[in-house]
Amino acid sequence: MTPMTTKLTGAIALLMLSTAVGHAEPFKIAVSNSYIGNEWRVQMINFMQAYADKALKDKVVLTVDNSGTDAQKQIAVLSDMIASGANAILVNPASDTALNSVIEEACAQGITVIAFDQPVTAPCAYVVAVDFNEIGRIHAQWLADALGGKGNVIINRGVSGFPADTNMNAGMTGVLAKYPDIKVVAEVYGKWDNAVSQQELTKALTANPEVDGILNQYGTYGALQALLNLDRPLVAMSGQGENGWRQAMLQYKDKGLKGVSAGDPAVIGAYALKVAADILSGNPPADKRVAVPVPTVSTDTLKPGVNVFPDLPPTLDADSEIPGANLGLKIADGMKK
């Protein structure tokens, strides 16, 4: 064997070894968050920082940047993260397509990129997200079972044209199509807002005196207020993971309210951080698309202090764990400022 061959063989062996064991700790992980204007996003960041402190202490150096809804600003932030020598970038994107070029640049430099909560279309990026179509299916199947496969239903949608609304509604209507005795008597756009949902459902309930169930993408507490203000019987309803909806489920359980709560959990950022640390340690997931199981709670499975918090603000997302993830976080971890 020649000296050149020996050097080449050694270099290949070193490359194979570094690939097998991943990057050296502590990993430099940068988080690029877009919108930070609601409590869900604040919780998301708090959960990520808590997971880094608790589960990844001395293993990661975590930095966070909130750039707002302007995709161009987020592109500039991502460029800075590349230049800083990050090992991994976690991005909650302002756009599913506008960031692709800078994401591809990061990948070309050996940086692991994970889009979480919302997907991107750059092929090199991992995506850690719930399936909004699946959330819609969970809501609708629960309601169909609660109604015994028949009844009049109102659908309270989100914001027209947004992918989350389109996908969640497709999941709902796909399930309802299997039940010909369930009739959709009204469809409203509550814009994922309690006040708008209350206003729109008040009109729909007034126009439809016989309603047996309401499918809510969000704004479930507003839907409940519409029923109460009209002195209508409490009907089976679905909603996402907001603490206020679960508080209402608990409060009105003995008055006939049946409900399910299933949605996109704020703790998803911590789960994405866990995936990033695994990848950098040489243990990547089997697929680029990591499906996040949807935390689901019904009226029958409410547990105060575990998945509903009577003494905490109704605006909180009530989930601090993702099924099977074993993150080890508590609701208080998402409330740190």
Describe the structure.
With 337 residues, the chain is an alpha/beta fold. It has two domains: 140 residues, 3-Layer(aba) Sandwich (Rossmann fold), CATH 3.40.50; 131 residues, Rossmann fold. Strand 8, helix 8 and strand 9 form a beta-alpha-beta unit. Helix 5 runs parallel beside helix 6 and helix 7 crosses helix 8. It is elongated. The N and C termini lie far apart (62 Å). The N terminus is likely disordered.
Strand order of the largest sheet: 2-1-3-4-5-11
What's the alpha carbon Rg, rounded to whole Å? 23 Å
Uncertain ranges: 1-21
Secondary-structure element sequence? HEHEHEHEEHEHEHEHEHEHEE
Briefly note the structural class of the backbone.
Answer: alpha/beta
Q: Any idea of the CATH topology of the largest domain?
A: Rossmann fold
CATH architecture of the largest domain: 3-Layer(aba) Sandwich
Q: What overall form do the CA principal axes indicate? A: elongated
Strand tally: 12
| Portion in strands | 15-25%
Secondary structure blueprint with pairings:
Blueprint: H1 3-21, E1 27-33, H2 39-54, E2 60-66, H3 71-83, E3 88-92, H4 100-108, E4 112-116, E5 126-129, H5 132-146, E6 151-157, H6 163-176, E7 182-189, H7 194-207, E8 213-216, H8 220-229, E9 236-239, H9 243-251, E10 259-262, H10 268-280, E11 289-291, E12 296-298
Helix pairs in contact: 2-10, 3-4, 5-6, 7-8
Task: Please give a handful of descriptors for the protein shown.
337 residues, 2 domains, Rossmann fold, 39% helix, elongated, 10 helices, alpha/beta, 6-stranded mixed sheet, 6-stranded parallel sheet, 18% strand, single chain
